[in-house]
Amino acid sequence: MTTAPYRAAPVGRQELLSRLDHVLLARGRALLTGPAGVGKTEIALAAAARAESRGETVIWLATQPSDRDIPGASAAALVASVGRPDVLDRLPGPQRGAVAVLCREAPAPEDGWDPIALRLGLGQLLRELAADGPVLLVLDGVERVDADSADLLRFALHLAPPTLRAIAVETPACDAPDAPQLWVPSEADVLLVPPLQADEIAELLIHHRLPSRMAGRIHKASGGNPRLALAVGRSLADARTPVHHAEALTLSGRARDLARQLLDTTPAHVRETLLLAALALRPSTALIRRAGRRTAEADLIAAERASLVSLGEDGTVAFTAGVLPSTLVHDACWAARSAGHAALAEVVDDPVEAVRHRALAADAPDAALAAAIGVAAETARRRGNSALAAELALLAAETTPVEHGPRRIARLVDAAEEAARAARADLAVRAATDLLARDAAPPDRVRARLAVLDTAGQGLTGLDEMYVHAMEDSDTDPALRSAVLLRLAVKYVLADGDPVRSRTAAVESAALASSIGDPRTAARALTVQARMDRVLGSPDAETVLEQARALEMSERPLGIRNAAQILTIRHALFDARLSDARDALNALLPLVQRRGPVEDAIELFSTLAEIESRNGMCAASLAHAGQALALTLEAGLSPGPAWYGLALAETAGGSFARAASYARRSVQASEEEGDHVFLSRSLYALGRVQLVNGDVATALETLHRVRTEELAQATVDPSMLRWHEELAEALVAGDQPDAAEELLAEVRPVAERLGRTAVLLGLDRAEGLRLAAVGRADEAAELLAGTAERFDAAGLPLERGRALVALARVERRRRRRSAAQSALQTAAAVFERAGATPWLALAAEMPSARTPVEPAPAGELALASLTEAEQRLALLVGQGASNQEAAAKLFLSVKTVEARLTRIYQKLDVRSRAQLATALGAARGHVAP
Prior knowledge:
Layout: H1 14-27, E1 29-33, H2 40-53, E2 57-62, H3 73-82, H4 85-89, H5 93-102, H6 115-131, E3 135-140, H7 147-159, E4 164-170, E5 190-192, H8 198-207, H9 215-222, H10 226-239, H11 253-263, H12 268-279, H13 285-290, H14 296-305, E6 309-311, E7 317-319, H15 323-331, H16 334-347, H17 351-361, H18 367-383, H19 386-399, H20 405-421, H21 425-436, H22 442-454, H23 464-473, H24 478-494, H25 499-515, H26 519-535, H27 541-555, H28 564-574, H29 578-595, H30 598-615, H31 618-635, H32 640-653, H33 656-673, H34 676-692, H35 696-712, H36 723-733, H37 737-754, H38 757-773, H39 777-793, H40 797-813, H41 817-834, H42 837-845, H43 858-863, H44 868-878, H45 883-890, H46 894-908, H47 913-923
Parallel strand pairs: 1-4, 1-5, 2-3, 3-4
Antiparallel strand pairs: 6-7
Helix pairs in contact: 1-2, 3-7, 5-6, 6-7, 8-9, 9-10, 9-31, 10-11, 11-15, 12-14, 12-15, 16-17, 17-18, 18-19, 19-20, 20-21, 20-22, 21-22, 22-23, 22-24, 24-25, 24-26, 25-26, 26-27, 27-28, 28-29, 28-30, 29-30, 30-31, 30-32, 31-32, 32-33, 32-34, 33-34, 34-35, 34-36, 35-36, 36-37, 36-38, 37-38, ...
């Protein structure tokens, strides 16, 4: 019989798959419904794989479009899918004969097949199958089942025993309102498969080894439809589209073809109505009807049934995927687009929108119209609609007659800068490309190029030529040269990982800006200089930052993302002045939420999440990090930084597994962007989780990568990314205490010179573990107890709890059961108050020590020499687990398990698994079998 290959749960569908299992168990029937490409078949495949793993028989029937027009086609295919001649042979003669006629194995009588015998035969066939054990029947594409087959299947399922369960997969279409029902569905057994969320689309892209940095824009383009999202992602990967051109990705190759297939499920008159909706800024049923489509309501209802649009209670129309309206507009001829815009211009109630439609309907440049569009752009800007203002500014330039050359160039410059303010990279590139093809003056060329650079986000690689030309054209203009140097300063650190060159460019930019009385640029340049001074360990960092803040106070910059005030907050975070940092952020947040750009809100939420995660407010940290990610994906920005923030928040109060997942995503996005700063950060977050999970070998590999990245970037200050203490602990856990001692000795003088108190406390925690590893447990316990107290005094509860966990390990090694339990209980109380769920679970997993007064068996004394991670592995292997099983259970690689087992054998002086089991049994006071 036909079965599907094994499938894991599709990305983002675990909960839905569990619901499907529950519905099948409770009711025996389930209908999966949703638009084409949403993943219904994948879910059914995963359910079938689960059924097969339980020993159930799976019958898979996938219908074809032509089946609907062939009487009995689907029923015959079902019989063929069973593939059990022995079951067919058990049918009574008339029923067997009717089935043979259905499957064309016997000639049909003149009066056709016997409907009663055929009904009973098909029903008996399913009953016989179910008599041999549970059966899962999957009918993929039930909307294509012919009427005769639907009648036969309906009767057969009605007679089927409870051991036969059925999944029907349906794709509703506007041209098939009478799709057959194989049973009378209720609300309980109909499962609507929804689109994926933006974060799930990102996971899907990573799963398919596709670029994830554009996950937000891909989600918008696809509407969360997995098939569309993968098509857009593959188009992007194949075209190697630069980040600053990414707005055009929705009109590429396979994605557009899939959009056409979805649109082609509707009749031509429905697509004509949808074209008007695609051309309108705020489409509604009433607007489209007034624009000349008398059948607007019926057409849009049909489109909604096909999952192309959603209709609001007030008649508003929203396309389910951004690629749909863009494809409609792209494929329409100019005459159809012009006529649509002209019709809309007559009926919209907003003069700004009317001017836009008039401009898009025009077939020739018009000076008067261009002036009107410019006025409309200014109105949109005052309203705060920056995206519309950017579109209108570019339309004004493109509508300006060629003979008005200087005016057109000036408008192109304005359009590029307006696009930069709106973060519309596609419009900025269009304006700059038009301008650079004309005889524009060097200052205009520089301003256009700066606008493109400002929309590139994290992805500044591949833009070297643009920087070179901007430097050449700004040679005689100090103001523009200062602006270009400022962008270069950012590029040097972000894309090149070179803080020394970044600082040099920032210093030069600040000097030029100050010489011409430009405090705004000077403040921004001094802020970059202060950042680099901190990275390079310069004692002047705070002084330079104060100078930048003083200029900002008088200038009141519009944004804060790269401003001195946010850097001041981050310095407070680095120095563990968490209350100061949080108070300053909370004062800024309402202002930014009311009228600031989305990048500022993302920066504030991300920083606030980091502050709260260290401050012991884990639930708040998760909430803020989630908001930052949602805003990032909604705005179509690179998710790498937001994923890093969420990895930190999840490490503090969520789940170590999710933290590792987000950190890995951030690593991939940062590598795609060529973003050295966040690559180091995300690797640090990943290595930290790997270490806590006990995967020491992998943690060492990851944290050594962080060290390499930071050394390559000439980073000196250890407070900005505290990887040193994590790497030192990993070295200790990996039986490299000498290397740990060397690292601690290297970084401690720097931290002391710069006065980084919190860093020194982290180093003390790692040093305590090192002392214990080399047999100086008494010194280790004293150091860790004092470190925990100092973390408490510094207002760092999670750090305190972690130091207490380390203390408990040492006390257990010293055979001080009471002291170990006390440290663990205190740590658990700290974690519980903070809502640090994963740390609380980690503390609960630690084994307790034996009472000191009891004599410890020799085996137990040897066992006490193992690290916590080694003990967990030893217990699993001692209980009979294979290396592969232990690796899966502990989330380690098999190679890590093998290396760790070698160390365990050496420490316990055993040579085999049997001897290990005996040693473990002796440690528990009995002999292992």
